[in-house]
Amino acid sequence: MAYTTRELLARLIKCEAGGEGDDGMRAVATIITNRANVAYGEFAKISQGGDVRSIIEQPGQFVCMRSVVGGEYNPQNVWNLDPEDIHYEIADWALANNTFSGIGNCLFYFNPYNPQCPPYFPPNGMGVIYNRINAHCFYAPTQKYAQT
């Protein structure tokens, strides 16, 4: 069964940031809407004017959108998790173009499983550290991203 964009976003929020509290989930949802709304670079080409679903489904972007990781079955994926009311509320909030100010215009995030955030992510330098919220590090686009 194909999920609506709302359902898919709620599932992705739960999967990617369900243990990060409201601010952490809003921050991850904001990354997705920031990518959908950025006016330049790779994500602008993918979203073609704001298509959130295209951003979510872009290959290689979210571990939770993969059923296999490193050749092994990934049990933590959007198809295995049932969102709760809070995940739908945050998805609705994000789809209404609300953003979490704690991450500004960030386009990238990840959990380093370390108390320190690397200065750049992805490692190719397209994002520079902006903020950390709970376990996730958030990165603002650099000039290198603008050239994608």
Write structural notes for this entry:
There is one protein chain. With 148 residues, this protein is α+β, with helices and mostly antiparallel strands. The protein contains six helices and five strands. The protein has a three-stranded antiparallel sheet with strand order 3-5-4. Strand 4 (127-133) and strand 5 (136-141) form a beta hairpin. Helix 1 (5-17) crosses helix 2, helix 1 crosses helix 5 and helix 2 (21-37) runs parallel beside helix 5. It is globular. The chain starts with a helix and ends with a helix.
Strand content: 5-15%
Number of helical segments?
Answer: 6
- Shape, principal axes of CA atoms: globular
Stretches where pLDDT is under 50 for at least 5 consecutive residues are none
Numbering strands along the chain, what is their spatial order in the largest sheet?
3-5-4
> Structural class of the secondary elements?
alpha+beta
Let me know the number of strands.
5
- Tell me the helix content: 25-40%
Distance between the termini: 34 Å
Largest sheet: 3 strands, antiparallel
Helix-strand string:
HHHHEEHEEEH
Mean pLDDT: 95
CA-atom Rg in angstroms: 14 Å
